[in-house]
Design goal:
2 copies of one chain form a homodimer. By secondary structure, chain A is of the alpha/beta class. Helices cover 39% and strands 19% of the residues of chain A. Chain A has 2 domains: 16-22 and 37-142 and 215-222 and 384-536, no CATH class; 232-383 and 548-603, FAD/NAD(P)-binding domain.
């Protein structure tokens, strides 16, 4: 029992550590995310007896979601910017891959209607790979372009123009139907989407329309999360969409212009030029750095009379900014900000925002401080989009942040143990544990990642390093204890953060699965099934982390590359330039971005308020 | 008497002709415009006894404006985009140039406060030339940038980006104070302006502030004129500001997107893709041409399913589009539009606009036709800005479209005659007429232009060509008849249209006058005074017409160059490129515009709706 507790403690500790030392770069604070796992789970589930049994029970099964764990009608496939509301697959007949879809005698009718919601990283990556000869693909999104989001902070100060990082969907994909509208309701029972023309140009009385689907890929991404903080929506800017970035750009210049008006007091001028960033994650820090560059390199000379009044403040809830990065980068960033005069307030929680200031509680002292601002940017995390919240409500998932599937690690642990506990003793010997975990490892990537992060080569190492148990060979695990602790990992371990990198890879993976579906019924290549016989059809999704950047302004950049390489400085900034130029989705945007960078070198950034 | 009537008839004919064959290019339909004359008049008025007598009567004189003709407190200096509400000078002490301003013992106090409203062509041209060592210059404008307006139509379809034709004021002028706000009231009595921070970023309760001035240059330009047509403001786009162009760009793409939605009828799709342009002037025609290019070169391939439903219609009140251009250009444009399938409805008046269509009355048949549209652009003419309308009301000029000065050709004619009519016979001999007109010619540029346009070398030619009077040497003119007919010219002849070219030249001229003020008191160089003795201080403003372009799309362009040269075709388009590239106000915008043009060649125009 003691060893079991140790394993539990170890897992818990790992989970806690992961919040401060997360190797992937999230666009905001990372959250619990199992989309990819679930997608893989779903795709590898195949057409076994169980799923057949659950076909056509979609409508019935949904309301009792939590109870009918084995229901297979809905699957989170993840991707996009949302670890919360990512890429979702709603299958038709209770199972994703009905064989008849590919063996239909009428090829026209046989083409299943595949609808993709969203044109972000996940959606576009999927769409670029999907074989439109096999599927009748439709895209629904309120914006008719794809945005290269990693350069969004650069748009806020004009280093890069908004249009330089946007590529029209119709340019990228010519053979699919695109409807510029917003999905406002998912009716999974009748397999219908209610869409609404969200723009100003619309036919009166015909704003809404319905779209049928067989497969639905929800890649709407997430939205900024205010965590219910009062006044955020009214008085803060977000940095999630292209329009947000443009609004910020306009506001920054406007703050300077207003501060130059002749009738203001010095205090009012000072407030007008106080820029507050709530959230010390990569987005917040990059924005603060870009803002500092804009002010020091361009605006200072144009607004000489007020330049000394400018303050930039980053409010961070944790101990350090960039706490998901290597501590060297985090430290470098803090030191650079200190040199630049950018204030970093750590261990502070924002209680309230009003028109003029942010009310901040310092965790250490409990003191409440008003931080005045001319402009505030809220960049603390992401939340679920209304259409998904609504959908989750209709299927009874009110307590969740992500659309859930039927299979969860914490539920499957019981099965694993049952299978593994051959002597039915209620506890596992070390060999039994090892065998089981090897199986589980294949199916649950979060375990795999956890082991890698702890530099364990083998599942059994988890037990070995537990203090005091290093030499202990015989070990007994209580199933409930172990289940509980694994569920804890399940809940806290942030498997794939909401980054472009993850979403793009997932989209491509999912499209490849869809394209290969007909073959894979006969040639399954996935891992061995735990519940059921045979193999899963697809190999699990493997995320290849290519590293992450933290641009820190003044041509300085931090980078974490695979293999724990950390690089900081000017050369890293050039690496950043090369990578982001090469990663552009088209030659057009590549040329535009390169020109924007060059332009900035020659002419500085534009300060026109528009 | 008969000859006098002939002159009158001739002048009337000339005035009528000028509405159809106007050599300068207006940004919209040209209107009566005497700003430049009046500016010159004002500046050349000097400090004679009369003006001294009127010093410090500003407040009193204003309400009785029309009656106190000789009042010298306010002068229309013209320029900018407004032949209606152009560049205005309000002098302090009833006269523009009080000598004491330059002989003050305290150089700090001696610097007169010169306030410029507006950052358009007139204002910026003035500001670039004005000597800030002599004047304490302040600029008030709701936009902190200058726009290269001739390229505005190119922004509507994305050939050129909005930011590429905007240059921040603070970049162009570093030594002046700029206040980003809108002047909402001119208090000429107390020499105070009421200004308002027009942006979203402002200090609550302190939106308004006052600015004192000694000299006020109003260069706020004009705004689009709906001529009271119902529904225009609500349902039409204008094309006057950068934001207008961007909104049009967004709307065009949005019309295509909406037309692609699956639930619309063919009729609705067709309406959505009907683009209507009201006004066949240079702006309307250029926009129609740019729109045609966008559709045929870029959108047709991206929206193949609806491309055949697109219609572009130009509604023109006159007989021909581009009727201010040479008839060859006008004809070429009409033929090109016919080939392209752009419908031109001439002799049509718009009665009403509603959400879905434009109600048009065909002048010939009297028939009323509904022309449906997805997007309509209103480009028929320009009107006075509210701040000027309000100001004109306070000074009793309610019946005018332009701010008037105290001296008008029609008023001065009486003086001219009195002086010339040496024998006091009440009629003029031909020699008397000749002498008088030579004097008048110097002072009233509209006469000069009129003579040039009629290819007269000499004033007396006006009489010579009058039918039946060719040989008649002796001629007697009734002063009232002549005055009436000259006043008619005065009213109808469009001296300087509201173009960038005119405004820029006037701004520069006015600044040069201001800069040379101290010298010119001792060394006047203007024409001889008519009322009073001596010479005027400044030579009159000479407008150098550099030609005008009419871009017609598909790399075709029409051009009228000085000396009645007309050029049409692809080579003219290249001339257009060269001229507009060279005329850019900064190397930055030049580089950006050139890049935009190049970008379009390689990658086409962007169709992202943002």
């Amino acid at each position: 029992m003691r060893s079991a507790r140790s394993v539990t403690a170890l897992l818990r500790r790992g989970a806690q550590q992961s919040t401060t030392k997360w190797p992937f770069r999230p666009t905001a604070e990372p959250r619990n995310n199992f989309g990819a796992v679930l997608a893989r789970r779903f795709l590898s589930s195949g057409t076994n007896g169980e799923s057949t049994q659950h076909r056509r029970v979609f409508g019935r099964a949904l309301p009792n979601w939590e109870k009918t764990q084995s229901y297979r009608g809905i699957v989170l496939a993840l991707g996009a910017s949302g670890c919360l509301g990512g890429l979702v697959l709603v299958a038709v007949d209770g199972d994703l891959i009905p064989v008849q879809a590919f063996t239909s005698t009428d090829p026209g009718e046989g083409k299943k209607k595949l609808v993709v919601l969203g044109t972000g990283w996940g959606g576009m990556s999927f769409l670029k790979q999907i074989d439109t000869r096999q599927y009748d693909v439709k895209i629904i999104s309120p914006r008719n372009y794809f945005v290269f989001t990693p350069l969004l902070p650069s748009v806020t100060n004009g280093t890069v123009e908004a249009r330089s990082i946007a590529e029209p969907v119709r340019r990228m994909l010519s053979s699919v139907d695109f409807y510029e509208s917003e999905c406002v309701n998912i009716d999974a029972v009748n397999k219908k989407l209610l869409c609404r023309d969200a723009s100003n140009v619309r036919v009166k009385g015909k704003e809404d329309f319905e779209v049928d689907y067989d497969y639905l890929i929800v890649a709407v991404g997430a939205m900024s999360n205010t965590f219910g903080t009062e006044g955020v929506k009214e008085y803060c800017h977000f940095l999630k969409e292209l329009e947000d970035a443009e609004k910020i750009r306009e506001s920054v210049v406007d703050c300077f212009e207003t501060a130059c008006l002749p009738h203001l007091s010095d205090e009012e001028r000072k407030r007008m030029l106080s820029f507050v960033i709530v959230g010390g994650g990569p987005t917040g820090v990059e924005f603060a750095a870009e803002l500092y560059d804009l002010v020091s390199e361009d605006l200072a000379s144009l607004y000489p009379s007020v330049k000394d009044l400018v303050t930039v403040t980053v409010i961070q809830s944790g101990d350090h900014i960039l706490n998901t990065f290597d501590h060297r980068i985090s430290k470098f960033a803090e030191e650079k900000f200190q040199r630049d005069g950018v204030t970093v307030k750590t261990n502070c929680r924002v209680l309230k925002v009003n028109e003029k200031d942010v009310l901040v509680k310092e965790k250490a002292t409990g003191q409440e401080v008003h931080v005045p601002f001319g402009m505030a940017v809220w960049s603390t995390g992401i939340g679920t989009r209304p259409v998904l919240t609504k959908f989750m409500k209709t299927i009874g998932q009110t307590d969740r942040r992500v659309l859930a599937t039927d299979e969860w690690l914490r539920d499957d642990i019981a099965y694993l143990f049952e299978k593994a506990d051959i002597d039915k003793s209620g506890t596992l010997e070390i060999e039994e544990f090892q065998r089981t975990m090897e199986k589980a490892r294949e199916r649950y990537p979060q375990l795999e990642v956890y082991l890698q992060r702890q530099k364990f080569r083998h599942v059994v190492d988890m037990v070995k390093i537990s203090p005091g148990d290093a030499k202990e060979k015989a070990m007994h695990l209580n199933v409930d204890e172990f289940k509980k602790s694994l569920a804890q990992v399940d809940k806290q371990l942030k498997l794939f953060p909401a980054t472009a990198q993850v979403a793009a890879q997932q989209g491509a993976y999912l499209a490849a699965c869809f394209n290969a579906l007909p073959k894979k019924d006969y040639k399954p290549e996935g891992p061995e099934r735990i519940r059921g016989e045979g193999r899963h059809r697809f190999r699990q999704f493997q995320y290849r982390h290519m590293g992450q950047f933290a641009p820190l302004g003044s041509e300085q950049c931090g980078a974490e590359l695979p293999g724990d390489w950390v690089s900081i400085g000017r050369s890293t900034q050039w690496l950043w330039y090369s990578v982001y130029a090469s990663k552009q989705v088209s030659w057009r945007t590549r040329a535009l971005v390169l020109f924007d960078w060059t332009k900035r070198l020659f002419f500085g950034r534009d300060s026109s308020r528009m």
